[in-house]
Amino acid sequence: MNHKACILLISAFVTFFFNACEKDRYGLENNFILTSEDLTVQQNFLDANEQEITEQIETGLVSMTSRSFPTRSWTFPKGVYPNTLTIDYGPSGVKDVANRIRKGKMIIFISAPIKNKGSIREVTHENFYIDDVKIEGKVILENKGQNNLGQNEFLRTVINRKIVFPSNKSINWNANQIITQLEGNATPEILIDDVWSILSASAGTNRNGTNFTVINTKKLIYKFTCPWIVEGVISLTLDTKTLSVDYGNGLCDNKVLITLPDGSTYDAFIRRWW
Predict the structure, then answer these.
(1) Does residue 77 sit within a domain?
(2) Are 220 and 232 contacting, i.e. CB atoms less than 8 angstroms apart?
(3) Minimal CA–CA distance to 98: which of 141, 139, 44, 134?
(4) From CA 201, how far away is CA 235, in angstroms rounded?
(5) What is the phi/psi pair of residue 157, to 5°?
(6) Is 10 within a domain?
(7) How do residues 11-35 score in pLDDT, each as one tens digit?
(8) Would 19 be classed as within a structural domain?
(9) 200-213, pLDDT tens digit by residue?
(10) Residue 243 included in any domain
(11) In this structure, are residues 230 and 252 in contact, taking their beta carbons and an 8 Å threshold?
(12) 256 in Cβ contact with 241 (< 8 Å)
């Protein structure tokens, strides 16, 4: 092989190797971005449902909103326990307080008033959608009583949760979350002053079919008056590499800061991208 041919071969190999590395890096970053979007949507829908269920059971915001309400039916008279509440938004859908369109049914088994220690609330779904995203699986909320600071604590277990986008791509997720009421403990009948923290460990599969695991490095904070998580950081591991998603410092907005494994950062927004 002559000198010129050798140089051309080496140059071609270096170019191929560089392009392959760039492609792998781009693919990994894309998968990270996609997974962080998946997680953010999943957690946002989960907490939005929690607030919606509380409102529908307690009707705490009826006098403060002009929204339309779905059909609510109880297996036994309301106030009798155990009991099951079916919230039916119908095939055409009903807007919630955050202007999301909800369709189908949420079925909630309630062992006792959720404010009672040891009570359990178990949620399943029947042909249920939020903004054309189908939600399946089971969510169990258990009242664990008060911690040593006098704050209400709950264990939320997310089992075989699946959300399916209109594109037919889906997210699968299982989680264990400790939820602590930081504010509003003294006013159980008033919901709008409630502030909660979430400490979570979870695992799942993103829209590309890639497995991931997640832990909190800083508790997530959400307020009853805001449709978004307002504070907190999660650590997301994917393909043995880890990024972080930072939800902010208390402002009610849909912005998050993503830090990739190489230290680069960019802003992302919780939005309807599907």
Answers:
(1) no
(2) yes
(3) 44
(4) 10
(5) -115, 120
(6) no
(7) 333 333 333 333 344 444 577 777 8
(8) no
(9) 999 999 988 999 99
(10) yes
(11) yes
(12) no
- Read off the pTM: 0.81
* Number of domains forming the structure of the chain: 1
**Distance separating alpha carbons of residues 145 and 126, to the nearest angstrom:** 30
Q: Is the sign of the CA dihedral 144, 119, 158, 62 positive or negative?
A: negative
Q: Which two tokens stand for residue 8?
A: 């051309």
Q: Which domain holds residue 184?
A: 24-67+128-269
Those residues whose C-beta lies under 8 Å from the C-beta of residue 74, and which sit 6 or more positions away, are 80, 83, 84, 85, 86
Per-residue pLDDT band for 109 (boundaries 50, 70, 90) equals: very high
Which residue bears the tokens 């849909």?
254
SS (H, E, C) the chain: CCHHHHHHHHHHHHHHHHHHHHHHHHHHHHHHHHHHHHHHHHHHHHHHHHHHHHHHHHCCCHHHCCCCCCEEEECCCCCCCCEEEEEECCCCCEECCCCCEEEEEEEEEECCCCCCCCCEEEEEEEEEEECCEEEEEEEEEEEEEECCCCCEEEEEEEEEEEEECCCCCEEEEEEEEEEEEEECCCCCCCCCCCEEEEEEEEEEECCCCCEEEEEEEEEEEEECCCCCEEEEEEEEEECCEEEEEEEEECCCCCEEEEECCCCCEEEEECCCCC
